[in-house]
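for ur thesis appendix - glucan endo-1,3-beta-D-glucosidase. copy paste whatever u need, i formatted it the way the template wanted (i think)
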Amino acid sequence: MTTAPLYLLLVSAVAIYLSTGASAIGVNYGTIANNLPRPSQVAQFITTQTIIDSVKIFDVIPDIIHAFANTNVTVTITVGNGDIPALADARAAAQWVAANVQPYYQETKINRISVGNEILATGNRLWISKLVPCMWALHNALVQAGIRNIQVSTPHTLGIISNSVQPSQARIRKGYDKVIFEPMLKFLRQTKSPLMVNPYPYFSYAPSIADIADYALFRPNRGVHDSHTNITYYNMFDAMMDAVYSAIKAMGYADVDIVVAETGWPSAGDPNQPACTVDNAISFNGNLLKAVTSGKGTPLMPNRKFETYIFSLFNENLKPGQSNERNWGLFRPDFSAVYDVGILKNKQSRPAPRPAPVAGKKSWCVPKASASDQALQANINYVCSQKGMDCRPIQAGGPCFGPNNVRSHASFVMNSFYRLNGARPFNCDFAGTGVVANSDPSHGSCKYM
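the 3d part is after this line
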């Protein structure tokens, strides 16, 4: 398979990060399909063949909840959007908990109740007005039932935020900030529950704009500068997360935890959906896993990991819409991997050698003759900010310090990034400033990989 070098690198990185500390790696287990395996088979596969330790389902499905009994996999269950108004009533909430939580929670690790999904985006005024009352009613019902270890929250699209181009200036949209979010954030703080968000760089992908495409996919790019913090962001996911953080911090709730309830990338689509490829899905989800499990955090939330749920577990053949809607899965219904970025245990346990070029003669990545020094300096900044990249050779006293100019230094680090990421052509794009060459640019004591 042509994706093997990048795959091996990402598998190795995820394996290393996951061995250093606890960090929930979850999946959204959707069921809009007529060819999925039995829940008991799914539970066995997840627990024995993958590193997945959390699942989120979009309903209350007894067979699925029961399938994860006596495992270490946590389960998030969901209240249907249309059920929210009725469950704002204390008696109805108590009955719901009695029917959908109490029969299972002693054997299945139900960790959270998701109250609806992306309610504010629906525009349904009744659902929106009853959202926080429903959250309180369910929380109180859990407490009255003697259950204190199940959180209650609700996922949001990033449409809740305005002014997010510069993450530090992001704010909750007017009209929702005081009426909905103030009481919601107060609830989350008091109950020690997280804010759940669904950040999808996929929906901002612009194939005609190289920098935006690379920015969305964690690939080399010039970055987006926040002039208020003097921080340059090199991937959209970090920027989205910091935008959420800035928005709730501005309201006085920086202490509320943030959970990534959904994110992912489709691996196939229709001819008019060029973003939907296996390579793009590997690039996004593989680098996502590295980002959320590394402990590096984001510029505004350093030194932290993020509980994250990838969308989705399976390709779902009955989802309506274009082909991409049926190709978000990590796995096919027969449990074969659409691609693997370190999720499978048997792949994760294999030692990963340093990746080699894709095929044929050895190649190197060098700057295009037309690339400006400003663009090349941005490439240096990007590469040297990446975990695992060694930029010491271009520093004073290093073997590649001379000639001491931006083009020479950029050439060395761009090639290092290219080689360490599998020597695949797109890893030499650098927003159109890099080109693959067949002649070794090494000089003197400066040896290129």
